[in-house]
Amino acid sequence: MQEFLQGRIWLRELLPFGQEAVDGLIRDGLIGTVPGITTVRKWHGGTASRCNRCLSEDARHFHAFNCRKCGKICRYCRHCLNMGRVAQCDELLYWSGPDLPPAGNAVLAWKGRLTPLQERAAGELEESLLARRTHLLHAVCGAGKTEILFGPVHRLLSEGKRVCIATPRTDVVLELLPRFEKAIGETVIHGLYGGSGHGDGLAGLVIATTHQLFRFREAFDAVIVDEADAFPYSFDRTLRLAVRKALKSDGVLAVVTATPSPSILSEIGREGRRSVIPVRFHGHPLPVPRAAPLFGYRKKISEGKIPERLKTWTLERLRKEEPFLIFFPSIPLMEQCLPLFSSLDAGIGAVHASHPERRSLVMALREGRVPGLLTTTILERGITIPRLQIAVVGSEKTVFDRSAIIQISGRAGRSPEHPDGEVILFHHGITPEMDAAVREIRRLNLEGRKTFGMPAL
Amino acid sequence: MECLLCDSPVSRPPTWKGLFTDRGKSRLCPRCEEGFVPAEGSPLLGDWDGTPYEGALDAAVSLYVYNDAMKNYLRQYKFLKDAALAGVFSDAIRQAPILKRRKAVPVPMHPERLSERTFPQVEEMLAFAGIPFVPLLEKTTARNLGKMGREERRASEPLFCLAENAEVRQADYVLVDDLYTTGTTLHHAAHVLKNSGARSVAALTLIRA
């Protein structure tokens, strides 16, 4: 039972063990209990409910009902409902006995080579993690972030520490898991995301979505948050609290991102270290997005016409047979556009978060079976397709903030053979966020040129 | 306000009525609402002809068909025990004509299952809709009909008895339940009420499977 419960915080009803065994361990003081929901005093003197699993204190997340189990008016948390309901009369259990070290003796099986910049960053990260100092790894899209992590993660594992790589997106977990399994041998690695199961044994390395960290408590010596700027981590306070909760009291936090937001910077704090990799692994500069006016595009589209500039751009891509992505701010607008684009080329498809064939459509684009895709911001990260050309329609909308535009631009020119690609922002008025994104990319390119002697823009 | 099912923000134009009452304000976003398809026609009661339960039910109405949206709703409401979802169909239930001039009787749960579920799902729905109801029945078996086959269900032992101190009058009753599958539950319940002197017994279910 210790293997399962150590570092976790779990609803008593959902524990896969007999209740008598659990009661025995509670009496022996090896398992601690807390009520599911507690009432906390706020700074303004009022009270609020707090869910002890997800740490939400938002009144909208709690619902009170007449409970027939405890016979009272009982509150439960709707925020983490999908993990099994936590109500006021439920008990959460955690392991409070002495900790076991994770099994196995990790071996670094990865034999690739790092660029000098990657190597420097990896060294700095490892140093910070060992000195228990928060660290920010700011590496541009396509800098090879995962490879940088192998060394430091292996070092921590070989010292018998438990490490977690957390990321807001399930897609990223699915991508990282096989790479780490290949790179680091002789250790238990768990990949946790919604619907993944809980894994067997005591894992040294856990690769999980940030949501899954709700289920952990004082578990890890180090948590590395990857893609920390992605939705919903950047918006949801409880996810940041979950990361803190999953850390041991002397644990250390590291953040990996391409676009550090002010909230990430504040999380790192003053004493945190920072390493910056301003160039991609192939040494070429990031493509700088170009703004192009597309005034009144919404009206034009609802009239059933593709705005002229967008049409020219798309036809040009089709003629040159370059794969392209066109980002839209919302699903309805994208679906309105799909038939219009289909009349240009019947192969053009559209993807969004709940699209059943999302993966296969992206594969088709990569293999050249479809000429291009319309998409929402769901494809803003994690996509690597050579020669990809990018257009953003309605880049003035709030979903396209600074970090989204930087990420989207990072999709272009990722392969060493075709290091340039076009990123064009079709807008109905330039926003400060667009300016900030362009400025940031220019700054990074400038910095990169200094370190590497790259050609000027 | 956020949608109860998908958590996306819902904004509707303010109305004068909305200032004074929550009635008629949907707790769902339009997208989620579209997923629920109203059922047409009524369940076939003729299936029960020739059994002891023939004629136990005088009428039956279901509000929605059992589709994926409904399946997800029931999963969240009953399996994840999300009691807040009891109010989702309040308006539809309140407007059901079959409830007019009839006394509502919720189909009860077995006490054991009730303490597992922590709330009685049908009674919660009626309470949210503001419909007065009388708990006349008691469930005698904790077995789950959902795990039985069609024939097994029909041949099962009586599922209900009258509750203690229950007073069945010479009146019109309407049984309320969440699902109508083969109608076993409702026929058994109606049979008990009829035998105790009810004038007529109708049934209202949220879903017809």
UniProtKB/TrEMBL annotation, chain B:
InterPro entries named among the record's database cross-references: ComF/GntX_DNA_util-trans (IPR051910), PRTase-like (IPR029057), PRTase_dom (IPR000836)
Gene3D superfamilies: 3.40.50.2020
Residue ranges annotated for the Phosphoribosyltransferase domain, each copy included: 165-208
Family named by the database record: Belongs to the ComF/GntX family.
Protein name: Phosphoribosyltransferase domain-containing protein
Organism listed in the record: Bhargavaea cecembensis
